[in-house]
Amino acid sequence: MDNKIFLISRYLTTFIIILGITFTEIDKLNFFAIILILLFIINTQLRYFLFRDLSVPVFISIIFDFIFGYILYKNYGGLLLPYFIIGIIDSFFLIENFSKYILGSLGLLIFLYAGNELPLYELLSYITTIITLGLISSIIKKEQNRTLKAEELYHRLRKSEDELIKSNQELEAYADSIKELSILKERNRISREIHDSVGHSLSTIIIQLGAIEKIAHDNGEAASLMASNLRDFTKNGLEEIRKALRELKPKEFKEYETLLAIEGLIKDFSKLTGIDVKLGFSKNKWQLNEETSLVLYRVVQEFLSNSARHGKATKISIFMHFSINDLIVTMQDNGIGINEITPGLGLTSISERVGELGGNLSYESKEGKGFLLRVVLKPVKS
């Protein structure tokens, strides 16, 4: 019922009270009557606009409404119904518990006592009107509460849906990042194992064939020539294997060396602390030089350490976005946070390191909202 029609009806009822007194008992109007009318109007306005969510002040205000209405009607006349109708409607509309029935009954009793000199049929019509309006107010209030609960539930569902979508996107990005890193690591491992095993074996064969060539030289030039040809064949085979290994090893692996080092750091950190750390990065990447890689590694290391020691975090997310002009690294935890950040030796040190590379470092935190650290680095050729 919180709409323009309801407000207009309240103002109209107040206006009818003033008109009733003015036209029926104009000779009785005095300073005290004007003060009472003003108090009556102020009381109804304060109750609706200021105290409507406070049960006790509303309860007291409605009782004062009935008292003011009784005094005004008995001493200055006017129409009886408008004095009580606002208070009775508010009893059912603004009071949630059983008190509304007590207030409604009290208002009705005071109304009957004030109008005891009126004809019975008029009193009955007034009572019918009051009870009807009270029931309508109660029904409207219930429907309004249901609507508000439905809207609240809808907003909560929308918020949960948005959070679920966001979490799903983050999980997909994280899964893609892990998959990509895993494939590269596996390819690199296979390449290394082939190089260490097959390459070593073939190198040994070459050495042995060289020895055979020298021994066979005394026993016949045919054996010597065969051994020499075999050695050349083996050397050619080794070169082919090396060529294949170079092709197998991903060219972009160097671009991932820093990411793999950071991933190893995160895994070790998670094992030691039990903190859940998620690492993600964009699809486009460019190679970091040795100095930039070291600074980035130290920044992540410092953030993880601070989140565990000072932030008491249980979850950490790290995302690296490689754009054309910048590498933007965003790190956030769900720790206790702090309203005023005083940079310690660690933050100061990594801030200086980032500044030396022409980048910038920023951070923010609020109590109960965790800690957010953002680093922006420029691409530098190796």
Automatic annotation (TrEMBL):
SUPFAM superfamilies: ATPase domain of HSP90 chaperone/DNA topoisomerase II/histidine kinase. PROSITE patterns: HIS_KIN. Residues 150-177 form a coiled coil. The chain crosses the membrane at residues 6-24, 31-50, 56-73, 80-103, 123-140. Keywords: ATP-binding, Coiled coil, Kinase, Membrane, Nucleotide-binding, Phosphoprotein, Transferase, Transmembrane, Transmembrane helix, Two-component regulatory system. Pfam families: HATPase_c, HisKA_3. SMART domains: HATPase_c. Gene3D superfamilies: 1.20.5.1930, Histidine kinase-like ATPase, C-terminal domain. It is an enzyme of class 2 (transferase). InterPro entries: HATPase_C_sf, HATPase_dom, His_kinase_dom, Sensor_HK_TwoCompSys, Sig_transdc_His_kin_sub3_dim/P. One of its GO terms (molecular function) is kinase activity. Its EC number is 2.7.13.3. PANTHER family: NITRATE/NITRITE SENSOR PROTEIN NARX-RELATED (PTHR24421), NITRATE_NITRITE SENSOR PROTEIN NARQ (PTHR24421:SF10). This is histidine kinase. It comes from Tissierella carlieri.
